[in-house]
Amino acid sequence: MKFTFQIVKDEAGMNDAYGLIKQLSPNVTHEAYTQYIADMVKSGYFQVIARNEEKKAVAVSGIWIATKIYSGKYMEMDNVVVDQACRNAGLGKQLYDYCLNLAKENGCAVIMLDAYLENERAHKFYLDKGFIKRGYHFLKWLDK
């Protein structure tokens, strides 16, 4: 199957990825998603969306490019989702390769991402691509 990749920087264009995001975060409403995207775009967030031959969004990675003291300039792949119907078709590798090239084109020294603890399939994928487990991602909900 052939896929095309598109960099999307406008909020309206990111609506195409909402169905994919729901596969990863089923509790995120469309209203919340559009509000979050509006806030995130102001900070330089954009998405890479993969489309199938029918132009349907079948994979997405949010992208942040920034700088941290310990890594220098980096690209974070955020909310990476391959549509359940398209898994095992090589799409995850193609999305990763596209993002890797994007990081290099933008002068990044590092690519980083988070993966849920229970998503062991993703862990194996990223380890196979040369990622290392560097630390823990801690969070604390302030309104619960």
Summarize the structure in words.
It contains five helices and five strands, in the order βαααβββαβα. A five-stranded mixed sheet has the order 1-2-3-4-5. By secondary structure, it is α+β, with helices and mostly antiparallel strands. It has a single domain, classed as Gcn5-related N-acetyltransferase (GNAT) (Aminopeptidase), CATH 3.40.630.
Please specify the SSE layout and strand pairing.
Elements: E1 4-8, H1 11-14, H2 18-24, H3 30-41, E2 46-51, E3 57-68, E4 72-82, H4 91-105, E5 110-113, H5 120-128
Parallel strand pairs: 4-5
Antiparallel strand pairs: 1-2, 2-3, 3-4
Q: What share of the residues does DSSP label as strand, in percent?
A: 25-35%
Helix content: 25-40%
Q: How is the CATH topology named?
A: Aminopeptidase
The CATH architecture designation is 3-Layer(aba) Sandwich
Please write the string of helix (H) and strand (E) elements.
EHHHEEEHEH
Number of separate domains: 1
Q: What is the CATH level 1 assignment?
A: Alpha Beta
Q: Strand order, main sheet: write it out.
A: 1-2-3-4-5
**Any idea what the CATH superfamily is called?**
Gcn5-related N-acetyltransferase (GNAT)
Rough outline:
globular
Query: Main beta sheet, described?
Result: 5 strands, mixed
- DSSP summary, beta strand count: 5
Distance between the terminal alpha carbons, to the nearest Å?
44 Å
- Classification by helices and strands: alpha+beta
> Poorly predicted ranges (pLDDT <50, ≥5 residues)?
none
How much is the radius of gyration in Å? 15 Å
Summed up, the helix count is 5
Arithmetic mean pLDDT: 95
